[in-house]
Write a structure and sequence with these properties.
single chain, alpha/beta, Peroxisomal Thiolase, Chain A, domain 1, 10-stranded mixed sheet, globular
């Protein structure tokens, strides 16, 4: 696995922008009319009570743009002071060009600013932070703006009970800067492409382009309706993968850094759902006070935006004023998982707000 230690990188500001449309699990009761007990069980197990969605016509790029604008304004930074824009998303505006270039044009960054996308999901913010840190450590960049956001809710079929309640939409902006003093950050990245079918959209790209057959609705054995153009999630495969790989990955990173969980102030997991988070915390023996678990219940699974949004939601007060050691770990589509351990705070800015429609 790629292990890395960067010595001169700081996370200095984060802004999260959530979708403005709020829906509760009870709003989907019609999907469970034949089995109301299933809805109650879903509430208890997942803790996914409400989710924030982007309205039609609002994309991950729009959410990330507003997050970036708020962050730059709060930190009193001009776009020209940013050396690179890195955008992590699996729901881009277009196949070509990439979201980072579109944002570059919208916000008026310098022509000397690098801009590129990374196609990654729930582990994507850590992957993006790794790349941003590497660019800074190499000496070519002083300041990198990492954008991570998705509108996964727009990829699910409205009658698919397995996916409709899960996903919220959000865009985030994270500022990484070269540290004047040593500031170590440890990273570990992992992949297992043999498990790619656990989370995927079967049709719509070049392997299986859209056609008359891909838009036909089908009902699976569990009664979920979808077409080949909609997201498929095998919940049991994802659950087993998470509990198999995540505890081991966190332990490996701590060993690499020469630390234990007692040396860490906060552990921020990708907010998949409460059931997975409870099991991860129990296996690693992490207390609820150290591992935030409530963000998914209020905002839904926010994919690549999940970790930075959780930091803004649960840790903003502490990280605005104090320096804390934080371990972040994401896992999901790919299959992929990635972790980082670093100091955070005092932040120049840390905030979460809903998207404001123009």
């Amino acid at each position: 696995m790629p292990l890395a230690l960067f010595q001169h990188v700081e996370f200095t500001a984060i802004e999260a922008c959530t979708g403005p449309v709020v829906r509760s699990l009870d709003d989907e009761a019609h999907l469970y009319a034949k089995n109301p007990d299933q809805l109650d069980r879903l509430k208890r197990l997942t803790g996914l009570n409400t989710r924030h969605l982007a309205p039609p016509g609002v994309t991950a790029l729009d959410l990330c743009q507003q997050a970036a604008q708020r962050l730059l304004s709060a930190c009193q930074l001009a776009p020209a002071s940013v050396d690179a824009i890195l955008c992590v998303t699996q729901t881009p505006d277009y196949w070509q060009p990439c979201n980072a270039c579109l944002l570059h044009g919208r916000l008026g960054f310098s022509k000397s600013t690098a801009a590129f996308d990374v196609n990654q999901g729930c582990s994507g913010w850590v992957y993006g932070a790794y790349l941003a840190a590497a660019m800074i450590e190499a000496g070519g960049c002083q300041r990198v703006l990492l954008l991570a956001g998705d509108t996964v809710s727009q990829t699910v079929h409205p009658a698919d009970r397995a996916t409709v309640p899960l996903f919220g939409d959000a865009g985030t902006a994270t500022l990484l800067e070269r540290a004047a003093q040593p500031s170590p950050a440890w990273f570990a990245l992992h992949s297992d492409g043999t498990g790619w079918q656990a989370i995927h959209i079967p049709a719509g790209a070049f392997r299986r382009p859209k056609g008359p057959d891909t838009c036909l609705e089908e009902v699976d054995a569990e009664g979920n309706t979808r077409t080949a153009e909609h997201l498929v999630v095998n919940g049991m495969d994802v659950f087993n993968f998470s509990l198999r790989e995540e505890p081991r990955a966190v332990s490996e990173l701590l060993h690499y850094a020469g630390m234990s969980l007692d040396d860490v102030d906060y552990v921020v997991f990708h907010q998949a759902n409460r059931f997975i988070l409870d099991n991860l915390a129990r296996r690693l023996k992490v207390s609820a006070a150290k591992a935030p678990m409530d963000t998914a219940g209020r905002f839904g699974n926010q994919s690549s935006a999940s970790i930075p949004a959780t930091i803004c939601d649960a840790l903003a007060t502490a990280l605005r004023s104090e320096r804390k050691r934080v371990l972040c770990s994401g896992f999901g589509v790919g299959l992929s998982w990635a972790s980082c351990l670093t100091w955070m705070g005092p932040f120049r800015h840390c905030h979460l707000a809903q998207y404001r429609c123009p």
